[in-house]
Amino acid sequence: MKISVVIPTYLRPNDLARCLQALCNQTRLPDEVLVVIRDTDVETKTLLESFNLTPFPLQTIIVNVPGVVAAMNVGWDKTQGDIIVSTDDDAAPHSDWLAKIETYFLSDQQIAGVGGRDWQYQGSHLKEEGTPRTVGKVQWFGRVIGNHHLGTGKAREVDVLKGVNMGFRRAAIQGLHFDERMRGMGAQVNFEMAFALPLRRRGWKIIYDPSVAVDHYPAQRFDEDQIHRGQFSAIALSNIAHNETLALLEYLSPIQRIIFLIWAVVIGTRECPGLVQVLRFLPSRRFLIVRKWLATINGRWQGIQSWLHSERAAVVPPPGVFEHSNSA
């Protein structure tokens, strides 16, 4: 079994150097590493030209389109591995990361995806602590629960993985690409959801194991999405709501779609509030919660429009309908 690792990056050469060093320290080395950079990113290109002593083939892929979706699609299309794994440039996988991922894929041919915890750090300290009971699930009415950075306990099946720590079986994703309808100029939040849910809909297993871990040092972003860096942006939040709405409308049943839209408008979440959340936080956040609500409603509406006016071309094969790889 061959493993390819793809790392999309933009203007973060120091973070990327730490990530590549972590891959060099793997107990199970990757069979190839592909770093996808923008054509304008001279700093990262310079770094990669000096990284010529890695214990694995290192390839630089150049794209001229902004956004993680374009980078991932180009990078994944050029891989040769039976398993394609991705992490972020500001992450450092633990030394047994690839070994554990490979073990899962060898153990069960119905597993399409494997991922785990990203231990988020702010400097040398954990950014957040907790022990959530639920990780990576889409509830029946459409609420999405992440918590990938806080998961503990045993491995379990999930609906969604996180881009900083995810790997997929090539045979399971034949014909499937990251959705180019995802909005945003950089992070394009929820692109992983749009990728994973079609696999779940067809019956593939997706595994989250907290011990399949990376250290994550959230770095500066160079786009409008600064929400997860502590800054509000109406455009970014609208994009988040659009992407989530589009992905869920394609995944949920007709009845669930109606329930989801009612829940999203009436209740919602802290990040993408509905009317109930507006009333809840109005005394303390005033104009900010109203701005978040307006951006969310705008994104939801645009997500509905995208769903109505487009159709995904990808056909995802069900488990078992593929040829077993003979790769060593």
UniProtKB/TrEMBL annotation:
The keyword Transferase applies. Keywords: Transferase. Gene3D superfamilies: Spore Coat Polysaccharide Biosynthesis Protein SpsA, Chain A. GO terms for molecular function: transferase activity. Residues 4-141 form the Glycosyltransferase 2-like domain. PANTHER family: GLYCOSYLTRANSFERASE (PTHR43685), SLR2126 PROTEIN (PTHR43685:SF3). This is Glycosyl transferase family 2. It comes from Crinalium epipsammum PCC 9333.
